[in-house]
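Notebook entry, structure prediction.
Reason for the run: the old model in the group folder had no record of what sequence produced it. Starting over properly, with the input documented here first.
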Amino acid sequence: RTFPMPRRRALVLIAAISLPCIGVAVGTAPHFDAATQEVVDVELAFTHMFNQELKKILKPNEPPAAKSVKPRACQGQPSAGSRAVFASFHKAGVYASGQLAGLFDAQHNFYYAGMAKPYKVPVVVFTRNAFDMILSGYEYHKACSEGSYSAVLPAMSAVVAGQKLPQDGHGVIRAVLLAPRLFTFVDPIVDGETYCGYLERLPFTSGIAVEMLRMSAFPMTDMLKAWRCDRNENVLRVCLGELVSNVTTTVSRIAKHLSAYRSTAQTAGSIDEGKIAEEYTAQFKQSKAHASTYASGYDRHHAHTIMRSLDLYMFNRSFAVLEKIEDCAGTVPADAAFRGRQEQ
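New structure, fully documented this time:
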């Protein structure tokens, strides 16, 4: 099966992401170590791509959007008091982190975007392999499981005519507006359609491309910023796959982290790890209604092959950078995905 190669217009996205971040904005680019600079480059590229392409559509007579040389400032989170903080990102264990927060008597930050200053309490941030997140998001949003994705979207012609993007916290309207302009193999949305209905109607490759574009706005930029802002010893990053595959070991790892950085005299032995693991397992089994499922209509290896091909040809491997920094094993490793591509 051949992969649909991008046509001329799609190269706009490649240029937006692959050009060096040496923009025309006033200011001097800060110095980062190599790993952080790679993250910053992707973060700035995503932001500039949306600013530039949206301006072409909504404000075509204005000069092109300037490219920033500085990433977003690390913004503060609400005070955690004396309780530990559990947090996650959309499609990376939001409900799992909330369940464990309750069992560990911790504060839960539903969606996370990094800290301006390190908390004085231990922090546990749940994350996930980028490509597993994309596939999970595609299946979950296609099922019309949340209001943000099942509401009828405004007509794109009206959005363009109004020259203003409506409130779009999850990046849905941005993705729907830009996808047909950036990817010539993606059909436009029709008036009166929902985002989930749009994904359901599109062929798999087109739908995945739209979801990758949406995720590059939310939550991927928040994940990149959080990784850049939270490189502190009291922050423990936990891959969702670890928790799913081995609850007992993951709970023990969290308990030790909380004990090591807790300001009270609590020790690892005072946390009943076995009870927490047992209660979490029971809660997880009861909450499958929210858990993302994978359709049986396609092979997961082939799905990962398509996502990595899109990432390579259309996003300049930006999602692979996120996969590398989060260091979470995917359900289909990169080498296996591309081996599967060669075999087809």
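Summary: The chain has a mean pLDDT of 81.
The old model has been moved to the deprecated folder.
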